[in-house]
Specification:
Number of helices: 27
Number of strands: 0
Length: 522
């Protein structure tokens, strides 16, 4: 029996829903097997632990001898997986398909070919509904092996049909593999550098994309091929900051799910991701009303799946909830309300979320929270979240966020009057930006502005410097590559707040109000 680490077992136990745990105990609680009773004792103990403590097991569970513990952990781990599989089989179509394929193989081994083919027919029907190409190929492989054992009057027709089906499925699989391979490669670029920084980045990405995407006729593609194609285009256009085209493909992706309702059941996680992509595009394009409506759909899914969702979906929905709620407050300028609602509520789950999300997501959330606190003029709170980014030893994930976190860090220290700290941080920020090849005009203007400041700068001179910096940055807003900087931080509104001696959120809220009136008038 394979050795199982206690940490892996503990994490598996904690990942189970209440219903899964109840099912597991019912499944093995009445077996009368002495080993099962010991297994349940170990399960109950690990389930009750708030923090994992392996060393306490021998003392707390004396009925389990030390020499038995390793085997018992492995036994419990296997039984948990079996119970989870059995409990979730009715809800996971792939498991149902696999079950019918397994039945067919067992029946074929007994030379019960007709019964085995009936199981394969059930599997084929489900695989077609789910559009699971890999399992369809496996079904065809089994059909081929049976045809070698059975001969009847229409064997030739069956062979021709199987060969043609296999050819079509392989072509579709090749397309999907190409689209998905491109997607993950582009995502790896994005995860490293963030949005493209300059023309070199753009040409490199564009050339890679165009040279690897295959020829295709969109109308001839299957649903699965379209899902992967649209996802690819969304990622590509958002990466190169073409948010309008990114929005169009994100919308096509969501509409594909809306047109084929069964996909929402069979590919729930993909549907949730598609809504997330649409929300990102709507946020970038400042489509507030559309953003709110799409966000309602995401909230409704979270409510519907609250009892049945798996852990992966639960965490994904929680992550998207916080990211898009923060984005909502960014759009409206209600930063203080955002801090109060999302961070100061006793029911906040943001800290739980940060414990379980991947490093990339954690970085994004940390940066968004720092901007939320900054917008609320809580600069100490902003620094708290910025330091979580700056203190990461290696900045090779989302280099852009690391760079702009350092810029925002300097501005926070300026707001707090920490001029001595600014002098120190400017040097380290210069070095970091040069190392990451991200020292562009935007950063140069701001760093020079902060470098020349001191606590003795007169009000009139300070006012003139703010006005000058704004005049330097305004042309960059429409620059092909420099405009990227304004995605991360609305520095123009901050400068206007300093020039007009107002709170930054008041400036942004006024802009929102004027835009809303303009949209209504048009």
């Amino acid at each position: 029996m394979a050795r199982i680490k206690s940490r892996s077992l503990y994490e598996l136990v904690k990942s189970m829903s209440k219903n899964e745990k109840r099912y597991f105990k019912l499944l093995y609680g009445g077996s009368g097997n002495g080993e099962d009773k010991k297994m349940l004792i170990l399960f109950d103990y690990m389930n009750k632990q708030k923090e994992f403590d392996e060393d306490s097991i021998p003392d707390k569970l004396p009925s389990l001898k030390t020499e038995q513990l390793s085997n018992m952990k492995a036994y419990l781990y296997d039984k948990l997986l079996q119970a989870i599989r059995l409990f979730n089989a009715p809800k996971i179509l792939d498991l149902q398909i696999r079950e019918q394929i397994d039945y067919a193989q067992l029946l074929f081994s007994r030379r019960l070919y007709t019964q085995g083919m009936n199981s394969l027919k059930k599997a084929r029907k489900m695989a077609l509904v789910h559009d699971n190409l890999e399992l369809q190929l496996e079904i065809i492989k089994l059909e081929k092996s049976v045809l070698m054992q059975t001969i009847d009057h229409d064997t030739v027709d069956k062979v021709d049909r199987i060969i043609e089906e296999a050819r079509t499925i392989n072509k579709r699989i090749n397309n999907i593999n190409t689209f998905s391979n491109l997607s993950i490669k582009l995502n790896s670029f994005y995860t490293k550098i963030g949005y493209i920084r300059d023309e070199v980045d753009f040409l490199r990405v564009k050339e890679f994309f165009n040279s690897n995407i295959p020829d295709f006729t969109e109308d001839e593609l299957s649903i699965s091929e379209k899902l992967n194609l649209y996802k690819l285009y969304v990622g590509y256009y958002l990466f190169i900051q073409d948010f309008r085209n990114g929005y169009e493909y994100a919308l096509k992706l969501v509409k594909l799910f809306d047109t084929h309702e069964e996909l929402k059941e069979t590919s729930t996680e993909q549907y949730i991701k598609s809504l997330n992509n649409l929300l990102i595009a709507q946020y970038k394009l400042d489509m507030y009303n559309d953003f709110v409506e799409t966000n309602k759909i995401l909230h409704a899914i979270a409510a519907d799946y609250s009892q049945t969702q798996n852990e992966s979906i639960r965490i994904r929905l929680l992550k998207y909830y916080y990211i898009h709620e923060i984005n909502k407050y960014f759009i409206t300028g209600d930063f203080t309300k955002g801090v109060d609602v999302l961070m100061k509520s006793p029911d906040t789950k943001i800290y739980e979320l940060l414990e379980v999300v991947d490093k990339h997501s954690e970085l994004i959330i940390n940066y968004k929270l720092s901007c939320l606190y900054f917008g609320a003029s809580d600069f100490h709170g902003a620094l708290k979240w910025l330091n979580r980014i700056i203190n990461i030893p290696d900045g090779d994930i989302r280099e852009d966020l690391h760079c702009f976190a350092r810029i925002l860090n300097l501005i926070c220290h300026y707001e707090l009057g920490n001029y001595d700290v600014i002098k120190y941080y400017i040097i380290s920020t210069y070095r970091f930006l040069l190392k990451k090849e991200d020292l562009h005009l935007f950063q140069k203007f701001i760093l020079k502005f902060l470098k020349d400041l001191n606590q003795n700068t007169r009000d009139k001179e300070l006012y003139e410097r703010f006005v000058r910096l704004k005049s330097q940055l305004i042309p960059l807003v429409n620059s092909t590559y420099e405009k990227r900087a304004f995605i991360y931080f609305d520095i123009i509104s901050w400068l206007e707040s300093k020039i007009e001696k107002r709170l930054i959120q008041d400036v942004i809220q006024e802009k929102v109000s004027l835009k809303y009136k303009s949209d209504k008038a048009s």
